[in-house]
């Protein structure tokens, strides 16, 4: 396999290798899923840049074809708020769309699903960002009024926010079909809820193998780095091949989600850096592969990870902090990891992990995980609660627990 090959992972069958040169010669994506992925990627970037998007609620149960105008609270500015107000139809209220996790953290214990809460007409960006936990202040909750369960388009908007690594909270307004011309005039990107559904797991994950080079490291001088880039996004993942893994036998593999603070700075408040170094030492003994995945903060992104750290300093544990921000306990998926292994010709592995969800995810994607190898890092006074929370509440295995 050369560096210009395209690798597509479908959960229903093995990865397909397509020559990138041939792929580039095609007129463009014609498959409905590929077109949807293009629109979703553009919508993700619009939200990151603070621009609104419009989502068509094309659920089969709906016939009115309403549009949802949505802007991410995290990147909202005063000028964008005014523009959003001009775009909405007269009499259509603005609503703050929040996840069930964020609502529960605000004391709305009856909210089992995402909800849209009507906001006061004079609400400010600062107030919205406080209510959405973008800023530390909890916000004045009297600004919120009647709530309604999130519909299909609203759920799609929240999913896009997470894909953009933004705090999952949006300012939204329901628009009638007649406002389509206004959206066109304002050059608001438009897509459907079905587009977003096609881009979410279980989905096709396309990876392009970009480059590779030999990089001697302290643990092993015979080491090769192979970089993969997601085609429908900007995430880059690295496969680190340590030594010469024995062919014909299960390959030792570590899935490691990026942790800037732990891996680079040696942060003591998590065990990520210690696990990374311990994994490389283990792989150096007989050869193996470490997949370094661009999934900072359990998939929430670095900005939200630092917000979670601030909340932990106030007394919350690592899972409570993520929920306070509106996230689930773990926002990662490991389909890209499975695609990288398949692209490297690795189908049977011994997984270095304490996380049973990684085992389940890889097996579901067609990787034969024949064994689990515990990876226990030292515990210190700064990360003891973090490690204990992962074991007690996130299901992470201990050294003596049953192997896979």
Descriptive overview:
35% of the residues lie in helices and 24% in strands. With 404 residues, it is an alpha+beta fold. The protein folds into two domains: 168 residues, DHBP synthase (Alpha-Beta Complex), CATH 3.90.870.10; 153 residues, GTP cyclohydrolase II (Rossmann fold, 3-Layer(aba) Sandwich), CATH 3.40.50.10990. β11 and β12 form a beta hairpin. The protein is globular. The N terminus is likely disordered.
Percent range for β-strand residues: 15-25%
Helical content, roughly?
Answer: 25-40%
**Which stretches are low in confidence, meaning pLDDT under 50 for 5 or more residues running?**
1-29
- E-strand count: 16
Overall residue-averaged pLDDT value: 85
Do you know the CATH topology of the largest domain? Answer: DHBP synthase
Net shape: globular
The overall number of domains is 2
Provide a short characterization of the protein structure.
The chain is α+β, with helices and mostly antiparallel strands and 404 residues long. The chain contains 16 helices and 16 strands. α15 (356-364) links the parallel β15 (348-352) and β16 (368-373).
Please name the defining characteristics of this protein.
404 residues, alpha+beta, DHBP synthase, Rossmann fold, 2 domains, nine-stranded mixed beta sheet, seven-stranded mixed beta sheet, 35% helix, disordered N terminus
């Amino acid at each position: 396999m050369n560096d210009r090959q395209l690798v597509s992972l479908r959960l229903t069958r093995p990865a397909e290798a397509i020559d990138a040169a041939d792929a580039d010669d095609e007129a463009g994506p014609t498959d409905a899923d590929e077109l949807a992925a293009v629109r979703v990627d553009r919508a993700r970037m619009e939200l990151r840049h603070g621009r609104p998007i419009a989502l068509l609620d094309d659920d089969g149960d709906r016939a009115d074809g309403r549009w949802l105008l949505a802007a991410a609270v995290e990147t909202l500015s005063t000028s964008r708020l005014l523009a959003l107000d001009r775009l909405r139809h007269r009499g259509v209220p603005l609503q703050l769309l929040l996840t069930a996790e964020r609502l529960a953290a605000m004391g709305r214990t009856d909210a089992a699903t995402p909800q849209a809460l009507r906001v006061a007409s004079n609400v400010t960006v600062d107030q919205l960002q406080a209510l959405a936990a973008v800023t530390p202040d909890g916000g004045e909750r009297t600004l919120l009024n009647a709530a309604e369960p999130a519909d299909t388009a609203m759920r799609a908007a929240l999913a896009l926010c997470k894909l953009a690594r933004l705090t999952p909270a949006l300012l939204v307004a329901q628009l009638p079909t007649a406002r389509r011309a206004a959206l066109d005039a304002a050059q608001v990107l438009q897509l459907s809820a079905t587009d977003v559904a096609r881009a979410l797991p279980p989905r096709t994950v396309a990876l392009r193998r970009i480059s590779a080079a030999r990089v001697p490291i302290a643990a092993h001088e015979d080491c090769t780095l192979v970089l993969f880039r997601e085609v429908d996004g900007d995430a880059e993942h690295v496969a680190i091949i340590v030594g010469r893994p024995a062919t014909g036998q299960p390959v030792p593999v570590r899935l490691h989600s990026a942790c800037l603070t732990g891996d680079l700075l040696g942060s003591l408040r998590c065990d990520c850096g210690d696990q990374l170094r311990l994994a490389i030492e283990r792989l150096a003994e007989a050869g193996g592969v470490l997949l370094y995945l661009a999934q900072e903060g359990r998939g929430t992104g670095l900005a939200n990870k630092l917000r979670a750290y601030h909340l932990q300093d106030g007394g919350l544990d690592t899972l409570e902090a993520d929920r306070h921000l509106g996230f689930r306990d773990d926002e990662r998926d490991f389909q890209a990891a499975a695609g990288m292994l398949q692209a490297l010709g690795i189908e049977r592995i011994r997984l270095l992990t304490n996380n049973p969800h990684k085992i389940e995810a890889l097996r579901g994607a067609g990787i034969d995980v024949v064994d689990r190898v515990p990876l226990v890092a030292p515990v210190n006074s700064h990360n003891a609660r973090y490690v204990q929370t992962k074991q007690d509440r996130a299901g992470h295995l201990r050294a003596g627990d049953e192997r896979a």
